[in-house]
Amino acid sequence: MGEGVNYYVPAVALGLVLVAKLPALVRGWRSPMVRAVNALLAMACAAFVFSAPPTIVVVNRLTGVSNFSAPFVYCILCAYSCACLVLVENWREDSRFETRSRRRVQAWVLAYGLVIVAIIACFAAGEAPVERLRDFDTYYATTPFIREMLVLYMLAHATAAFATTAVCRRWALDISRETRTTEASIVGRSLQIGLGFLVVGFLVNGIFGLVKLTAVCARWAGRDWDVLNRMAGSFISLNAGVCMCGFLLPVFGPWLVGRVWRPWRAFAALRPLGALVGASASGSGKQMFLATPWYSSPEQLLMYRLTNIRDGMLRLRGYCDDDVREAARRDALARGVGERDAVAHGLAAMFEAAAAARAARSPADGPRSVRAAEALRTAEAEDRDLMTRVARALPASGARPARQLSLIDAQL
After folding, report:
1. pTM to 2 decimal places
2. Among candidates 289, 344, 333, 331, which has minimal Cα distance to 312?
3. 262 in a domain, yes or no?
4. Same domain membership, residue 280 and residue 206
């Protein structure tokens, strides 16, 4: 089993992804895109499972045919190559060229279907009595019909790899030109990065195919270049992982950014503000801070922290001074800070002053406190990321003690 780990581990990973996507396959069976994605995952998973030496032995024993696994794996890899081409075609489908795209898909399916039939026919016509688990390609490179099968499989595999590389590269360049003139969305960036992985993965895949073909051709000349075949085989698992990242990143990338990365980043950025308003309320009697369960998602963590921050702000409300906020905002504008960031700097300075006033038991003037609350509500309505901006402004507002704190002291 040890020698099959490099094959079974990626197979299990792909199998888990395939199982996770089965509900989407059931719901969207009529969608060519959904079918292509699931076919690709299934073929990739099957290729890893049946290419593993332990599986090759089992399949050969069950069928009673020496080296039956060889054409079987070649057929699976041809189906995988076809699935890659079909997926990219459906992925980039333009409604203006829907008919042309459908015809290309049909042509790819027909061509690789004929290749699979030819592989089976060549193996049936040839003779391969000696079981070879790792060097079947070079061992039978000069055997009639088997050599034709090998060349056919390798050329078909390399053709699909280079064709997919060209399409993905052209598509990635188109997206790159678009993002220069417009703000890149999460979906666009994920797609661009995923296509970059695919370009690398399929280019290397095509080169591997040519390297294996070179080793076979060397046998025709009476030379032993099996080392090339072994070198190519040692990188197959890693390269397949690169390709899978390229296919899966555009699918899961936007979800990871929107539901994991951004909430976690905002949660971490809010820590200084949470510490400030939480510490200021620590001596104010009963507290209603929400506990954070250990199993919380990043979105839940962010919600809990925002709720606790707002609770702390309510406790600071009577100590907030609008004159401090306005003076700090104007000071930030005078230093060339943008309007939205200047608003955040003003609120950050106000909360720092309110925390100090709370510690000194010195409430702010009633009208100034009311104006401060109104200014906070207005700012929140205009900027959905206001709390994050305020939290990030706290170190900046605290880094100017000579100027800023003297202004706060004067207002207090």
Report:
1. 0.69
2. 289
3. no
4. no
